[in-house]
Amino acid sequence: MNRIVVASNNAAKLRELVALLEPLGIQAVPQSELGVAEAEEPHDTFLENALAKARHASRATGLPALADDSGLCVPALDGQPGVHSAYYAGAEGSRAERDGRNNARLAAALADAPDRSAFYYCVLVLVRLATDPTPVVAEGAWNGEIVLEPRGSGGFGYDPYFLPWGSTRTAAELVAQEKNRVSHRALAAAALLRRLK
């Protein structure tokens, strides 16, 4: 399984996944390069959405497929934005416009909250074929808190507002190599590798 299709059209997420998989000798091909459209994500859990995306990409290409579903969970907001992280403040506009609205809504919701703890969560699902009865599932969580003013220009999504525990820098202030060692996606990829071995 040296070549897999990655079931995502999110350029920033693809960069992270390709960087995490490359040292493993896995050629990760974005689904868009193979003409595969985004799958529907109608489910209430990260796992169900990731599995749906992986099966969709594998069915369309005949290749093993890897899908990620991830988001930011805030206990004070009953786990929101959660699986709706990408569209927390609506689906209109470009990814950058949605990120801006999502972050503004998050900061406003937590402005007076005594507890702004949060965690990024990622589940990775690898299917060998679309009907794989035993998909490989791995997860990772990255704990921290939400700051009310954005800091940093790296990363994407909620990164300028996410301050990992034990760090003085937000996720957006970390260089890509640092983030790819400690993030929820990095932890899930490491767990996936252990499962594959």
In short:
By secondary structure, the protein is of the alpha/beta class.
Features:
alpha/beta, Maf protein, 32% helix, globular, single chain, 197 residues
Provide a descriptive summary of the structure in words.
This protein is an alpha/beta fold and 197 residues long. The protein has one domain (3-196): Maf protein (Alpha-Beta Complex). Helices cover 32% and strands 21% of the residues. It has helices at 11-21, 46-61, 95-110, 176-182, 184-196; strands at 3-6, 27-30, 65-73, 117-127, 136-146, 162-164. It has a 6-stranded mixed sheet. Strand 1 (3-6), helix 1 (11-21) and strand 2 (27-30) form a beta-alpha-beta unit. The model has no long low-confidence stretch (mean pLDDT 92).
Q: Per CATH, what is the topology?
A: Maf protein
Structural class: alpha/beta
Q: Per CATH, which architecture?
A: Alpha-Beta Complex
Let me know the largest β-sheet. 6 strands, mixed
CATH class call: Alpha Beta
Number of strands: 6
Q: Please give the order of strands in the largest beta sheet.
A: 2-1-3-4-5-6
| Global shape | globular
Q: Considering DSSP H and I runs of 4 or more, what fraction of the residues is helical?
A: 25-40%
Q: What's the total helix number?
A: 5
Number of domains: 1
Query: Averaged pLDDT, please?
Result: 92
Backbone CA Rg = 16 Å
Distance between the termini: 13 Å
Low-confidence stretches: none
Order of helices and strands: EHEHEHEEEHH
**Fraction of residues in β-strands:** 15-25%
